[in-house]
Amino acid sequence: MALPPASPRKLSHTRTVVYNGYDREDGLWDIEAALTDVKTYSFQVPNERPFPAQEPIHGLKIRVTLDNKMAIQAIATSMDDIPHTECAGAPHGMHKLIGQTMGPGWRKVINQYVGGTEGCTHLREMLFNMATAAYQTLPAGQWHRRELAGQPQPEVTKPPYHLGQCHSWAYDSPTVQRAYPMFFRPKVVVDGPD
Questions:
Q1: Where are the domains of the chain?
Q2: pTM (2 decimals)?
Q3: How far is CA 63 from CA 55, 90, 128, 178, 181, in A?
């Protein structure tokens, strides 16, 4: 379904964020994110250098290395384009995330270790969504690894994280009934007064 037609307008700002998931030869997983901000016009923050149009204001990257349980084994950042010299110190606490697990409560973990002035708003934004990219990478990748090795798939004994987190994956949805019938819960219809 397409967006409705827009009012007359001109492009002002483009933020590009790309996530990639990698299956490493050593059995671990890398999730990488890259964020770029570009304006279509030149501007200047007071008492700072001018930014020419189309020059990246932000050019940031993060690589998080995970084990099969989505626990962080290593983390690296790159801040190639930053608006202020002081931004270079923002990733200083990222190592505190090593040992933490991407899963329920991930945003809280990020804010606990690199929240507020202990980190960078844009790096946090990237980290928030890295869990989704990791979830898109690991379960299917693990399934694929077992398939290639001729190993049986493990029995699913507990609901995956994504169940109950969106419309299509509601416990009473046809999607869950088809994909995970063992966790399907039919909607209870309560009759009103007669």
A1: 13-148
A2: 0.83
A3: 24, 16, 13, 35, 36
